[in-house]
Amino acid sequence: MLASRIFSRGFASSSFQRGAKVAVLGAAGGIGQPLSLLLKLNPHIDRLSLYDIVNTPGVAADLSHINTNSTVTGHKGPEQLGAALKDAQVIVIPAGVPRKPGMTRDDLFNTNAGIVKTLAEAAAKHAPKAHILVIANPVNSTVPIVAEVFKKHNVFDAKRLFGVTTLDVVRASTFVGQTKKTNPENINVHVIGGHSGVTIMPLLSQTGTKFSKEEIEALTNRIQFGGDEVVKAKDGTGSATLSMAQAGARFTDSLLRALGGEKGIVEPTYVKSHVAAKDGVEYFSTNVELGPEGVSKIHDIGPMSDYEKKLYEAAIPELKNNIKKGVDFVNKA
């Protein structure tokens, strides 16, 4: 009953057959543990494989006592990474160090880039056809890192690589709901671009809701920098973990249902895209229709207000730099 209540969107009509193996890399961390809990409750998953450099067997043992029909295994250390990845249909990567007060996502780059590169190399070797969901920040750069690693192994498939930007949409719905005093579950905000600062562009003009100029400016800033609220509130102990876990579980659920043949599933995600290619941006987040192969259709941006066009102009150079940074990290001599 608990699983059906939490994952209620479309499960009854889904044609998905049991048997999915999902691997969580970084499963013992602040995002990884609640994410793994939510995935243990997902009836689409038969095998949940948890990997981290410490504590994973304990997390796995704890979760394995939950009475849902999936098997949980814990894998610890580099020597067990291959077993964690073998036969996985979906790999979720929340691994990495969290932000602290005063840090930007870009400040995390050197540490997290190395972690993601190592995990991507293992995935390319042990599960080259898996769908990769990147949560590790900075997503604008870590997604290109995974792509470049997979290219080097000749196994890159753009339809199977996703940057999880769902939290930006979740936050946008929440903040608009608070502003307009309405249920945020009934609000859908199209958020485009990337997953940090000015690259996060909420298209409030497309919601059908009227906002004042002051509301637009305040909401846009809060959506772009909402993560800073959590970092500051946690006072040096971490960044957004619980909300990110929920967003990651939502995207994983949507992808699993789409892989099983359910149609009409659209989620925002940062993928290799044509949308901003004319401006020299190879990866971009818009609404994406998911299908049996992963990415089925990348939706265009749609109409933007003059204010949103300025957001776009400000985001493009930042996205270019972020993407280049990730590509260069893998291809440097």
* Cα gyration radius (Å): 19 Å
Number of strands: 11
**Percentage of helical residues?**
40-55%
* Distance linking N and C termini: 54 Å
- Work out the helix count: 11
Low-confidence stretches: 1-6, 8-17
Shape: globular
Overall mean pLDDT stands at 92
The CATH top-level class label of the largest domain:
Alpha Beta
Biggest β-sheet: strands ordered side by side in the sheet? 3-2-1-4-5-6
Q: Which architecture of the largest domain would the CATH scheme give at its second level? A: Alpha-Beta Complex
Q: What oligomeric state do the depicted chains represent?
A: single chain
What is the count of structural domains?
2
**What is the H-and-E element order?**
HEHEHEHEHEHEHEEHHHEEEH
> Which sheet architecture does the biggest sheet show?
6 strands, parallel
What class do helices, strands and sheet pairing give? Answer: alpha/beta
- Provide the β-strand percentage band: 15-25%
The name of the CATH topology of the largest domain is L-2-Hydroxyisocaproate Dehydrogenase, Chain A, domain 2
CATH homologous superfamily caption of the largest domain: Lactate dehydrogenase/glycoside hydrolase, family 4, C-terminal
Structure report:
This protein is of the alpha/beta class and 333 residues long. It has two domains: 2-163, Rossmann fold; 166-331, L-2-Hydroxyisocaproate Dehydrogenase, Chain A, domain 2, CATH 3.90.110. 41% of the residues lie in helices and 18% in strands. The chain has eleven helices and eleven strands. It has a six-stranded parallel β-sheet, sandwiched between helices. The protein has a three-stranded antiparallel β-sheet with strand order 9-10-11. α2 packs across α10 and α5 (109-126) runs parallel beside α6 (139-152). The longest helix is centred in the C-terminal third of the chain and has 26 residues, at 306-331.
